[in-house]
Amino acid sequence: METKILNASLDENIIICADVIMSGGLVGVPTETVYGLGANALSGDAVAKIFATKGRHTDNPLIVHVASPADVQIVVREIPDMFRILSNAFWPGPLTLIMKKSDVVPDEVTAGLDTVAVRMPEHPAMLSLIKKSGVPIAAPSANLSGKPSPTKAKHVFDDLFGKIPYVLDGGNCRVGVESTVVDISGDTAQILRPGGVTYEELEKVLGVAPTIYNTALADSDAPRSPGMKYRHYSPKAPLTAILGSPKMSSDFILTHIDDCCNGFKCCGGVHKVAALMFDDFASANPAVVTFGESSDHNDQASRLFDALRQLDSLDADIILAQVPDEKGLGYAVANRILKAAASVQHV
Ligand code: TXA
Ligand code: MG
């Protein structure tokens, strides 16, 4: 199968892709967070193709995307009070809410759980595609499992060429990290995955601090957020997250980048070191990929996954990465870098 990239701002292209969704196929779709690999969420057979195409574990459930808060009624059994507050504040946008599922949602979507993850995305092309398809669209990030999430149509094309007919090109993703996943199926809101809506924003709207699900304390056989047990976003070369102030971590990286594995005691020979650094602390070394100023968490989020893909193309043996502070969107950015990391070094 040839994969074609279609301009998402043309209605005729939305219609072509809606036809694919309605006939049980898969399409690469733009959202404001990352690109998704979409299928009809009400068809178990269509959804099963997502897992096969991505190489995703079938016990890792998917997010169902709806075009309005009212459409949530189709896929959930009961609407918790917190839903109104959170959807009013953050939808359309990068917030996924976990609620008790209704019977129309196939087990393939939820991996057999009695809850379903739902989100109303903000990207106009995605909203239009859901409306034209006439069904909610289940979509995980449109990367091959183990690769960084795609934030450009080209990333989807590179990962899934020959496996899907179309990628709808809606431009670079505005947010750049995935949605925040919040479980509201119980009495209190619990963050299962940090993302585009920040902890501080959730706390302000809820009037209480949300709890954060700690995967380290979880029973590894039955984690609350199944996706978290898999290592994501891993670059080809092992990445070491360098923790410390921007000045300390950059001093550490810049002394090692020309000096191979000095201090790493990892090899008897020479390692090619590449680095992920803040714009305001980087050197002009071609092995350095930057992802925004140290204080600009929005820019870091929108550039991170593309930067990880660029680092892959450098064919390094080791990647050293600066990590932002965890305020605001920095929390989600730091979370993704630490997930990509094979090790951590404090400086
Ligand atoms: O921004 C996003 O969320 C993107 C775009 C395409 O919407 N999607 C995305 O999907 O990141 P994915 O499949 O890569 O991540 C979905 C996460 C996984 O960690 C999964 O385990 C969790 O949501 N999840 C889905 N359903 C769940 C449920 N019923 N209970 C707990 N966690 C769930
Ligand atoms: Mg993903």
Description:
The chain is of the alpha/beta class. 31% of the residues lie in helices and 19% in strands. It contains 11 helices and 16 strands. Strand 9 and strand 10 form a beta hairpin. The structure holds threonylcarbamoyladenylate (TXA) and magnesium ion.
Largest sheet composition: 11 strands, mixed
- Return the structural class: alpha/beta
Fraction in helix: 25-40%
- Could you give the order of the helices and strands? EHEEHEHHEHEHEHEEEHEEHEEHEHE
Tell me the fraction of residues in β-strands, as a range. 15-25%
Average pLDDT, rounded to a whole number, is 92
Which features would summarize this protein structure in a list?
16 strands; binds magnesium ion; 5-stranded parallel β-sheet; 347 residues; binds threonylcarbamoyladenylate; 11 helices
